[in-house]
Write a structure and sequence with these properties.
Elements: H1 4-9, E1 12-22, H2 29-32, E2 41-57, E3 62-67, E4 73-76, H3 87-95, E5 101-107, H4 117-132, H5 139-154, H6 161-168, E6 171-178, E7 183-189, H7 194-199, E8 204-208, H8 215-227, H9 232-250, H10 254-271, H11 278-289, E9 293-296, E10 304-308, H12 311-326, E11 332-333, E12 344-345
Helix pairs in contact: 3-4, 3-5, 4-5, 4-6, 5-6, 9-10, 11-12
């Protein structure tokens, strides 16, 4: 479908949040289906570092994609490569048979920071195409579609917690299970009122370690080791820790939440020592010293770490983390807070 004329009259812009998480990998069906008897889940927090996708007119028969940190790409509508750095965006456009469109992506989070940026961009792009094509906006449907398109072109198993955080926002525990005909999720908001959610901002800290990550490398190691039967017990424990962590945060027991987070991080480190880079290990050790919990985001191996703890413990930890990050180019504490809104359409 040629969108050049439609967009000439009305350009479309959408935005979605990114996320930090606990209990990742369990959102991949390779893991959550065999672990069904444990009701596996993932916990995540949407952040106000939003990804903005804008659609504007372009040449008929072509698709243009541009994003900070990546080389701009233009391809004919018949042949966009899905293994390109922007391949996911081209795959989404191809699903809608869209051309005559310039897809521009702006992200407030650092590139390849393990905050779910590419999946968030896909959710925002699906929502943008729904808007321009007058398709109703249903967050659940958009998250599933973005997930399945990504899974079809990624070349590795993919979860969907990133898409759900982007589509819904807030602080949630996502329970993974099989429905009558397809996989399903159950959304369990962690906080009953917005004041409790806002108060959680002072009990966490998020740092960018300055080194971009490639999620498929470590995720593939976890999935492969699970398939071989080598790490089943570890992931059973992670499923239990995720449920306990969600309850601890809900009950505002942040010392307990910190201990649970550190247990999960140590399990991951035992499976994949590279899940934390040199700076990440220093940040983790200092968090433990300050009675806080710390964990990589996404699949780790660079990108971001986040910490949780009581307010006074986070206040003590912050200057230590700042000192560690000063020695690493581009590393910093991120100025961000919880985002309660998911998809926003302008």
């Amino acid at each position: 479908m040629n969108l050049e004329k439609k967009l000439a009259h009305h350009q479309v812009q959408t935005s979605v949040p990114c996320r930090v998480d606990f209990g990742g990998t369990l959102d991949i069906s390779t893991l959550f289906l065999p672990l069904n008897y444990l009701s596996p889940s993932s916990f995540n927090i949407a952040l106000d570092l939003r990804t903005i996708v804008s659609l504007s007119p372009w040449e008929k028969g072509s698709i243009k994609v541009s994003s900070k940190g990546f080389e701009t790409a233009v391809f004919k509508k018949e042949t966009p490569p899905f293994n390109h750095p922007m391949g996911l965006m081209f795959a989404v456009a191809k699903y809608f048979d869209a051309h005559g469109v310039h897809i521009h992506i702006e992200s407030a989070s650092p590139p390849r920071s393990a905050l779910g940026g590419s999946s968030s961009a896909a959710v925002a792009l699906v929502a943008a195409f729904h808007k321009v094509l007058d398709i109703p906006i249903h967050p659940e449907q958009i998250a599933w579609l973005a997930h399945y398109i990504e899974a079809s072109v990624a070349g590795v198993p993919c979860g969907m917690q990133d898409q759900l955080a982007a589509a819904f926002g807030g602080v949630n525990q996502w329970v993974w299970k099989m429905g009558k005909i397809s996989p399903e999720f159950e959304r369990r908001p962690v906080f009953e009122n917005e004041d409790d959610m806002k108060a959680f901002n002072s009990k966490m800290l998020i740092a960018y370690c300055g080194i971009p990550h490639v999620s498929k490398d470590i995720n593939k190691q976890w999935v492969d080791s699970f398939v071989r039967g080598e790490t089943r017990l570890a992931f059973e424990k992670i499923a239990d820790l995720t449920k306990e962590f969600s309850r601890a945060v809900k009950n505002q027991s942040f010392r307990q939440a910190a201990d649970l987070m550190n247990q999960e991080t140590k399990l991951r480190l035992k499976m994949t020592p590279d899940v934390l880079d040199k700076a990440g290990k220093k940040l983790f050790e200092k968090a433990v010293d300050c009675d806080c919990g710390a964990r990589f985001t996404g699949a780790g191996g660079g990108g971001c770490l986040w910490a949780v703890g009581e307010v006074q413990d986070i206040e003590i930890l912050t200057p230590f983390w700042q000192d560690i990050l000063e020695a690493v180019k581009d590393a910093k504490i991120l100025d961000t807070k919880i985002e309660n809104k998911g998809i926003i359409i302008v």
